[in-house]
C-alpha cells in the first residue's frame, strides 16, 4: 500500500507541475526535483534522529501528520471548477492493464532476484535467483512486443504504458537511460553510507543520519540552478554531461575512504560533489524529457522518467546488498575460530569497509556508462524551453481540431 501511494505522489508531482505553470516558470520543475532529491536524503537523517531518541515505530506515527498538512494545502490551492480547462478524458477501457502488469512484474522480479542473491550468496546458480531474473527479463521483452502490437493494430485504443514512438525517440530514451543510471549510485550511497558509519566507525544512528546533511544543500542549489540556466538557454546536454562527470568523480573518490575508526573529513567534501552531480542530473532529465514529448504524452513520459529513477535506485540497493552479503560470508568463512569473539566483530568492520569500497567502484563503472549515455541527448539544432512549450501547445490544439473534425465526420 505504501508503494502504491508513494509511486503515485512521486510521479504525479512531475506531471502536474508543467501543467499548472507557464512556460516562463520552468524553474519550478527544478524546485520539485530538488525537493524529491532532498526528501531522499532527509529520510535517513530523520530516521536516524527518531531511532536514536525513540523507536522505529514512531517513523510511521509521524507519517500521518506529515502527509495531512500538504494534503490540506493541496485541497485549498486546487483550482475552482470555473478555473479548470477541461481536457478530453479517456475511458477506463483505454487503461493499459496488460502493460501495467508487465511493467510491475518485470521491475519486481529483477530487483527481487538480485536481493535474494545478496541475502543468500550461494543462490546465484539456483532457481530462486535465476527464475525471477528470467521472468523479469521476459516481461520486459513481452512489454516491448505488446507496445509494438498496440501501435500496429490498436493505435489510439489504449493509453499505453510505454508508447512505441517514445521508444523510437533517441533523445527521449537517452534521458530515460541517464535517469536509470543516475538513480543507481545515488540510492546506493544513501543506503550504504549510514550503514558504514554505524558498523565501521561505530557511530550512532543519529550521527549516521546527520552525516548526510552536506548533500542536502548542494542538491537543492544545483537542481534549481540547472532548471534556471536551461530556461534561459538550452544547455541541457552540457548540464547533463557535467552532472554525469561529477557522478564518476564522487563515486571514485568515495572508494578511497579508509578503514579507520574515525570519520574522515574528506567524506563531507565528497558529498558536495554528490549534490552537484545528482542535482544537475535530476532536474535536467525531467526538464529535457518534457521538451521531447508532446502534451498528449505528458503523463506517460514524465511517469516513465520518475519510475526508472526509482528502479535504478532499487537495483543499486539490491546490488550493494549482494556485494555486502557475498563479501561478508566469504570472509567470515575463513575465520571460523573467531565466532562469537571480539575478533569477529573486528572482521565485520573490515568487511563492511571493503564492501563499501567495492560498491563505490561498481558505481564508478556504472556512472562511466552514464557519461556515454548522455551523448544520446545531443542535438545539433536546439530551441529554448519557452519556445518549445509554445510549440507543444500549438501542436496539441491542432491535434484537438483534427480529432474534432474526425468526430464530426463520424457522426455524419
From TrEMBL:
Domain Major facilitator superfamily (MFS) profile residues, every copy: 1-382
One GO CC term on file: plasma membrane
Compartments reported by the entry: Membrane
Topology of the protein relative to the lipid bilayer: Multi-pass membrane protein
UniProtKB keywords: Membrane, Transmembrane, Transmembrane helix
PROSITE patterns listed in its UniProt record: MFS
One Pfam family per UniProt: MFS_1
Keyword Transit peptide carried by entry: no
SUPFAM superfamilies cross-referenced by the UniProt entry: MFS general substrate transporter
Organism field: Hymenoscyphus albidus
Any one Gene Ontology molecular-function term assigned to this protein's record: transmembrane transporter activity
Residues passing through the membrane, by range: 28-46, 58-77, 97-116, 128-151, 172-194, 206-228, 235-256, 268-289, 310-328, 359-378
Principal location class: membrane
Record-given protein name: Major facilitator superfamily (MFS) profile domain-containing protein
InterPro entries in UniProt: MFS (IPR011701), MFS_dom (IPR020846), MFS_trans_sf (IPR036259)
